[in-house]
Amino acid sequence: MANLEEVFLDEKQGVDEKSSNGQSKKETNKSKDILVHIPDTDRVIACMEHGILDDYAHTVIFLPGAGFGRTNNPDYNNILTQLNIRLIIVDRPGYGLSTPHPTRTYQTFANDLFHVLKYFNLHESKNFFLAHSAGCPHLLSFCNQYPNLVAKAAIVCSPNPLVGKAPIDRPVEPNCGRSCQRCCALNFLCCLTCCMNPLLSSWEKNPKEFEKFTLQQLKAPQDKQFYQENNQQMSLFIQQFGDAVHPPNGKEALYLDMLGLPVKNWGFSIRDIGCSIQVWYGDADEITPNGNWFVNTLQNAKGFEQNGYGHALIYCKFDKIIEILIEE
Questions:
Q1: Whose CA is closest to 29, among 91, 89, 79, 90?
Q2: What value does the mean pLDDT of the chain take?
Q3: CATH class for domain 4-325?
Q4: Is the bond into 248 cis (omega within 30 degrees of 0)?
Q5: Which of 29, 96, 185, 210 is the most buried (most CB within 10 A)?
Q6: 294: how many CB neighbours lie within 10 A of its CB?
Q7: Do the beta carbons of residue 153 and residue 301 sit within 8 Å?
Q8: Per-residue pLDDT averaged across 237-245, rounded?
Q9: Residue 26 has what pLDDT?
Q10: Which tens digits make up the pLDDT trace of 35-53?
Q11: CA angle in degrees (0–180, nearest 5) for 49-45-43
């Protein structure tokens, strides 16, 4: 068992409310930080529990997208309490309180995640998993290495492999623009890195700069509507980014998620994954437009295409994604 240390932050005791039928309903709003020491290393992986921490019916492990970690809880409508769920969100190496791991791969993180499960005594049972964007390849690697620990997984707006033959190892790019982006990523990574480094540095120094970039990327109609109607969520979104991406390690961790890992061979084949996986994607997502390829390539996948939604789907549809994920 890993050597463990717990740090308790921002705890709020549950209160009793009356539900619509007049019965007492437990309302719990707690967060608890946990640092898990990885055996035979000097690294720790940080995670945070959200939602119901006692007498919960289900546990869901969530891997957020690039630039986000353990505080990135999309439970805006209190769905965790309604469904009696404990949500465990994990900082990948270099984010938040997790120790950096410059040689991180999707496989090494899968092993880190196993030790997180071991801490929670979830390493001998099947569990629910959720990932968004850059968190998806990390989750898929875990599904490939530890299929016996996966009851169901949901990937939301997943990037696709860039290396290999299409359409077997990777999808056929949908247009010339995407083909050019792939070519640049594979053959001119040094140039891309030089261009990206100042941008990533500005985001690490001032998360407000990331907010400007994010707003420019909101092109899907449903994404725009969501943030127009939920101004407070954008402020929370930027705060969560700052919690994960901060000096001295945030920029390097973000680079690995955005460029360093995606351009390499992922180390496993999507075709070999046999777990039950739900694939959520928006038809207006220009960042990760190949959800249908995952549906057709994974052995045991079910697709959930969402009309008018883009890369912010995890925030816009979190309630529905969680509800369907834990359905028996």
A1: 79
A2: 90
A3: alpha beta
A4: yes
A5: 96
A6: 23
A7: no
A8: 95
A9: 45
A10: 999 999 999 999 999 999 9
A11: 160
pLDDT band at 30 (very low <50, low <70, confident <90, very high): low
Question: 9: burial class by Cβ within 10 Å (0-12, 13-18, 19+)?
Answer: exposed
Alpha-carbon gap, residue 293 to 142, rounded angstroms: 20
Q: How does 305-314 read in b/e, with b if 16+ C-beta sit within 10 Å? A: ebeebbbbbb
- Whether cis (ω within 30° of 0) applies to the bond prior to 167 is yes
Count of residues making up the chain: 328
CB 28 within 8 A of CB 53: yes
Give the closest residue to 63 by CA, choosing from 47, 80, 40.
47
Q: Reading across the β-sheet that carries 58-63, which strands appear in turn? A: 4-7, 30-37, 44-51, 85-90, 58-63, 127-132, 150-156, 277-282, 301-306
Phi, psi at 64, each rounded to 5°: -70, 180
Cα separation, 144 vs 137, whole angstroms: 10
Tell me which residue of 264, 276, 280, 319 sits closest to 300, measured CA to CA.
276
User: How far, in Å, CA of 194 to CA of 213, rounded?
Assistant: 18
Per-residue pLDDT at 325: 98
Residue 29: pLDDT over 60: no
Is it the case that residue 15 has pLDDT exceeding 70? no
How far, CA to CA in Å, does 62 sit from each of 86, 132, 208, 215?
A: 10, 8, 25, 24
pTM: 0.90
